[in-house]
Amino acid sequence: MSLLNEIKVLRDPVHGYIHIHDKIIWDCMNAPEFQRLRRIHQLGTTHQVYHTAEHSRFAHSLGVYEIVRRLITENEEISNALTDYEKMTVMVAALLHDIGHGPFSHSFEQISSYSHEDYTCNIILRDSKIHDILYAEDPDLPNDVANVIRHTHPNPLLVQMVSSQLDADRMDYLLRDAYFTGTSYGEYDLERVLRTVRVRDHRMVVKESGIHTIEDYIMARYHMYWQVYYHPVGRSYEAILHGLFERLRDVYEEDPEDVSHLMMFLPLLQHQMLTNRELLELDECSCQYGFQLMSKCKDTILRDLSDRALNRRLFDYDTIVSVEQEYSYKQWISSMGYDPEYYMYVDRTEARPYEPYKGQEENEILVLMRDGTVKRLSEASVIVNAILNGQNKNEKKVFYPKELNE
Amino acid sequence: MSLLNEIKVLRDPVHGYIHIHDKIIWDCMNAPEFQRLRRIHQLGTTHQVYHTAEHSRFAHSLGVYEIVRRLITENEEISNALTDYEKMTVMVAALLHDIGHGPFSHSFEQISSYSHEDYTCNIILRDSKIHDILYAEDPDLPNDVANVIRHTHPNPLLVQMVSSQLDADRMDYLLRDAYFTGTSYGEYDLERVLRTVRVRDHRMVVKESGIHTIEDYIMARYHMYWQVYYHPVGRSYEAILHGLFERLRDVYEEDPEDVSHLMMFLPLLQHQMLTNRELLELDECSCQYGFQLMSKCKDTILRDLSDRALNRRLFDYDTIVSVEQEYSYKQWISSMGYDPEYYMYVDRTEARPYEPYKGQEENEILVLMRDGTVKRLSEASVIVNAILNGQNKNEKKVFYPKELNE
Amino acid sequence: MSLLNEIKVLRDPVHGYIHIHDKIIWDCMNAPEFQRLRRIHQLGTTHQVYHTAEHSRFAHSLGVYEIVRRLITENEEISNALTDYEKMTVMVAALLHDIGHGPFSHSFEQISSYSHEDYTCNIILRDSKIHDILYAEDPDLPNDVANVIRHTHPNPLLVQMVSSQLDADRMDYLLRDAYFTGTSYGEYDLERVLRTVRVRDHRMVVKESGIHTIEDYIMARYHMYWQVYYHPVGRSYEAILHGLFERLRDVYEEDPEDVSHLMMFLPLLQHQMLTNRELLELDECSCQYGFQLMSKCKDTILRDLSDRALNRRLFDYDTIVSVEQEYSYKQWISSMGYDPEYYMYVDRTEARPYEPYKGQEENEILVLMRDGTVKRLSEASVIVNAILNGQNKNEKKVFYPKELNE
Amino acid sequence: MSLLNEIKVLRDPVHGYIHIHDKIIWDCMNAPEFQRLRRIHQLGTTHQVYHTAEHSRFAHSLGVYEIVRRLITENEEISNALTDYEKMTVMVAALLHDIGHGPFSHSFEQISSYSHEDYTCNIILRDSKIHDILYAEDPDLPNDVANVIRHTHPNPLLVQMVSSQLDADRMDYLLRDAYFTGTSYGEYDLERVLRTVRVRDHRMVVKESGIHTIEDYIMARYHMYWQVYYHPVGRSYEAILHGLFERLRDVYEEDPEDVSHLMMFLPLLQHQMLTNRELLELDECSCQYGFQLMSKCKDTILRDLSDRALNRRLFDYDTIVSVEQEYSYKQWISSMGYDPEYYMYVDRTEARPYEPYKGQEENEILVLMRDGTVKRLSEASVIVNAILNGQNKNEKKVFYPKELNE
């Protein structure tokens, strides 16, 4: 792996600086597929609530890379546990892990048949500038990087660093989203986490003395979910996008001519997997311009919904508890002259932050006790244990046009 | 002026919260012309250097409004010096002061015959949702707000708060740009500035005890210019945009069909003032999509330059000192097969941060001395005086395609 | 209540500024009994662990005052619920609530028969500059302020603001201790707490929308306990002070001449309540000087323990679980030639952070639900509920001289 | 140099963590002479103005050490320029550079015939735990460390890192004093300074690209002087201490019995250099206790001045410009019944922040230009040049008892 003549350092408010020593990282960063991430917001629709949450997946991806870089150079046990080739593999995987994201991630995945991970692997494995860079370095590298991302790499340590309950992805986004929203909920002591990680049996474990830091990290995540990621105003914007894309698909079936000039959306409407080239051209800028075009279509629903998206005319919401309630909202919306297919959206926010710690043991964060044994976090932490055995918080909300309330 | 039922508070990392009490502010904020500012970066091309500088003019405009709101409610002398109508006028002017900005501000102004202030006043004075909101409040309001923005309002205090050497605009952008770039250069003590402002003779003055805070503010500005605003990488991106728009105009003259589908740029190419509707549709998203379209034009220069803009293939630069040097660069670039018209850009960064304090006295920040007299800052501050009488720093750079150096 | 000619503002990193409008607050602040708090560390022995935790109860007391001042002026419901006299009462109580603290609080209370609250009320009620200031303002004021502090004031709202599960005392110390230790554990969103407080039935309640902020505040407290307040190194220093004061008392009984020159400790050794004058002279400076004198006494144990205190020769510790273990440590220490009376210390850290929410209902934080009803926090928050019903964390540690391990 | 079994890390809000790898650093830190620094405020009397500026020289000394440690390990050119023995020497010198400070530094030096540097070298060179630790490591080490401190070490690089216009001492105290006062004036980009330092001809130089960071650092220092270090309230407290020590000396001459019990001050009154043991016992705690004892002396001036010191009854001040004015203040104070010898203090604050850059060339910060030449900062920076050639700010204040104004 060749080094740059001079280390590149990029100022970053979350990490101080991002340090780039390796040519392959620099080249990947400058590839069109990576530069495109500048045109995808990290938090999809959240900047409609927290107006300063305008940061992109570009910045986040650099942050994830930086955390992995620090883990493999500053943490002695991780550094010793990996070969140079594995180090390169995991740094590249960290940098590229989000490269397949579509615009407004959630909404995009709802209308696409493929996940962003499918697209990420596709870009890494074939037909892209990124692929060429990796392949030129080592013909095995594209596949090895993709294996880290799809959890099939033989060394679980690499997978864990990029995607697990305690991975560089979360470590970066909690701090970054906290910084850019201006809330303090996502803050925890990253320095201490990096210092208390150890390796046992090819897995990351956390020293017992670091348990409180991990508890703090988990609570940070919990609060970010409820205060930021699940914020009803952000979800309301997603509800509009959801209706809009539903309607777009239906108009494309019924009156294709009315939408045939929306070039950026056509590949998506044909329902198959986008090519890397097509995905490259589909970013939030092209969507926003698409919404402008849509707002002049013949179809009145499409015109209305795209105008709402452009100018933030949001939906209202109520909390509901039963299927009966859901049904009566449907009746009411319909009776007011709105088609619930596009103008009603039910959102379930089911306590996801706990979930991972239930279920499969292999997902658990592991703790290295003072006596050398390894315990599951839920055993080692009274707080996590209490939360796991407590009642789940979950909420169901129905969204509908604000004017129905007036 | 009617109040909202409940104060709206928006989380903002720079100010803690933005507080909105008045319905007219809330309504302006939700107008399409203001929502469009979400799609214009505050720092044009700077996020190409400081990757987290992705904040928009939307957030900045709210910040300017908040500072003015605090000045007129928390600073006793300012509060007493203004009528309720004037307070509304200046708050609205602060909120709307940037509403006429085009995409990538500098580049836009270079190819447009009109300034962003012309457009701002146009939106306020006619044919827009914003205009309707102001007019409904008071038929004089549009004109009074525009007068604040074009420096023709009879009360200089209003003008000064929005646009002067010590205005809410700068007070916000220094802190905001520092926060989002992650540099500390732009920081100064805003709280203290707000507390040390007084009113004498319809002008803002600063108490003598606040001089060090003002010196710190001026140095903050100076350092932000050199470390952020004049950063050669950001200028390099502007150089590309400049060449691109030059070429676009020329192709439009020579082979209009090749660019006739670039709908978003057509009004601009016709060289007259854009209508409010046309400006509304011209944001950085439509530009970015336009660059995608351009990268498939027939014209090879347009294709090349738009690809550079999309994928950050930047120009290199050298510092030059003489017209002769400039000329020989032109020869060299031309001899290498590049048309200097589009592939060479000369940027003069002439110590602008000092300038204002020279020249006209009415532009000076005034200081209220302990003995009750009012002095110009350059007399009252040994630091500012030294800087004014010191040698000016200015630099001239020539930008050209990186590959010429390889 | 007379106002100052000019508001006094004191820079404070936690609150930005402390604002003092009222002459009585300014006068109390300048009284010798309050100035003495500069010579008492806020965190007793914690700066032996976190070397920057050198802040005093003086700074903390100003912070508690500032939070109460903001609550009664910025929070509309609290402002409306109180008379002017009650506002003055609660501000003064907030400022003075810690005035009776002895040096190294815990250790002091262990050897004194009276609590710091007893001393605080004593200073307020008689024979002090503070008393004179309050009495001159209103002859009832000393008694009313003391009633707030000893929880006997008829208006529970005043008591709650100064001392409850969600009081200005904790609100300040969590943020302040986090700032001065340099940890982030104690951070939570104070602004939001202040904004979501309401008054129902003469009690502070928190709006349902603020629950996550309160959960964050409770977790902040929990983490500060384990990471800072219960830190074994800090406790180790307390163990030494405990042995030292025990020994001092015993030498005073057995060989009074050896300690008769330790003027600062004599009143304490006579076992009765200190007079206000005696307490005024007993601060951490006089203790430290006392330790210097002690290190030259005849008694070898006193000399050794005071030298440990002065030069941070700390005790080691082990975690123990049973009374049997405790007993065998005692045997061991004794067999090594150390008297366990002074050289062994058992510290129980029993999950105090949960406790308050168990037990008496009147101690619970109350939540104002969207439907207008009031619930206990443990019912309204799944997190707090889970923690309450989870297993308690508690630890028992035994401390002994480090050299026993060598 | 032996390493610790496990790196010690100390949380520090300014640097994140202080890292200690070497046993000798850990041992020095735990020596009584170093632990004593916990009982000396970093900013002498400034916490009387900025109430949170309660940090000690202990914390600052660790910070200076940490900066030097980072310079010699993270900065490649500095690392390559030094032998391992030199690295140890400069780290130890950084840690110990303030070890000879007396209580309330300025006031102490005014009444002592020796500087804190004399005392520092004395502790390092003989008769102390610190000396023993250094000597045991290498018999030359005490002398080599002292040579760094007294500017006589043959390698100027070592001297510069600890004491020069751009040394670790200033780098730490600006950030630390800013943090603990809660002002932002002292902030500058430490990371960038550490990264832009190079070595030429055994001297530290700064890369041209780092000039703005250095300008910011110099302005930070300038503003800290005027806003913090020269703050008249802090000086007022020093005026009282000055009078108090003057009076103490005179009473000792005239009526020695009245002060013979002030054991902590006796060595000082005998006018010779204190022994290391005597200095060890003279800290701000013993002074504060001494003030308590003094407030019960027979001498009324001593009683009055010590009561002022204990209870912050400050002096007032006026700005004066001429010797005549100074004389008439003296007359007035005397005529009011106060002895100007103890109750009048004239303080000259002569623009010290500029000074160093004038005068001797060897004191200048040097800049490594892009073309490889080395320039003096005053030539390379238009700002520093302007300041150097500008008019000096200097002020003279006279302090006297507040009651004279009533």
What are its keywords?
406 residues; alpha+beta; 13% strand; three-stranded antiparallel beta sheet; globular; four-stranded mixed beta sheet; homotetramer; 9 strands
Task: Walk me through this protein's architecture.
Four copies of one chain form a homotetramer. Chain A has 406 residues and is of the alpha+beta class. Helix content of chain A is 53%, strand content 13%. Chain A has 22 helices and nine strands. The first copy, chain A, has helices spanning 23-30, 32-35, 57-74, 76-81, 84-96, 105-111, 116-125, 129-137, 141-149, 156-162, 168-181, 190-196, 211-229, 232-254, 266-269, 276-281, 284-294, 300-311, 323-335, 340-343, 377-380, 382-389; strands at residues 3-12, 16-22, 197-200, 203-207, 315-320, 345-350, 366-368, 374-376, 394-401. In chain A, the strands form three sheets. The first copy, chain A, has a four-stranded mixed sheet with strand order 3-4-7-8. In chain A, a hairpin with a 5-residue loop joins strand 7 and strand 8 (374-376). In chain A, helix 3 (57-74) packs antiparallel against helix 5 and helix 14 runs antiparallel to helix 18 (300-311). Chain A is globular and about 65 Å long. The mean pLDDT of chain A is 91. Chain A binds chain B through residues 10-14, 16, 30-32, 35, 38-39, 47, 50-52, 54-56, 58-59, 62, 179-183, 264, 281, 283-286, 288-289, 292, 310-312, and chain B through 10-14, 16, 30-32, 35, 38-39, 47, 50-52, 54-56, 58-59, 62, 179-183, 264, 281, 283-286, 288-289, 292, 310-312.
